[in-house]
Amino acid sequence: MASEFQRAKLTTMFAAFDTDRNGCLDRDDFQDLAERWHRLPRVAADPELTAQVTEVMLAWWERLSAAADRDNDGRVDLDEILAMVDRPPAMLDAVNATADAVFDAVDEDGDGRISPAEHHRLVNTWHGRAIDTADVFEVLDRDGDGFLGRSEFALLWAQFWISDNPADPGNLLCGPVPAARA
């Protein structure tokens, strides 16, 4: 069962992924999400990375639908997402496999590091709109060097998808999590 924190985090991500705002996720939403990512400069300039991003996004849909589409209607609603909240730790390999593709897409200048500006574009790309990320990067950048390296990002990525602990910095990777309902 989803905690209030998980509910708040997953509701925010569900809204970001539901590109047509119909209250359900389907393959078209993930294709639209891939199209958002294709507009990132590094992705747009690299056909191989474009194909990799599309593959990652559509693979997420396949995994999600296989795990959560209880009524086999080709759509996943928020209740179905929340019902499978305990499964991501068992899907750690799948989560980790996506971290490199996302890192490469966001590392706009290809320097092997994600800057605060690149991170801000990641958040805006996920959500499809501008999100206030003030002070978020400082929490993510645990070593204080002003960047997120690949291994640092991978840990944060896994925390985002798996953690139920609001204190884990990775929960902020895709932007602030709204306060859970009281």
TrEMBL record:
Chain ranges of the EF-hand domain: 5-40, 94-129, 135-163
InterPro entries (alphabetical): EF-hand-dom_pair, EF_Hand_1_Ca_BS, EF_hand_dom, EF_hand_pair_protein_CML-like
Gene3D superfamilies reported in the protein's UniProt record: EF-hand
Superkingdom to which the source organism belongs: Bacteria
SMART domains the record matches: EFh (SM00054)
Pfam families: EF-hand_5, EF-hand_7
Keywords carried by this UniProt record: Metal-binding, Repeat
GO molecular function: calcium ion binding
Full protein name: Calcium sensor EFh
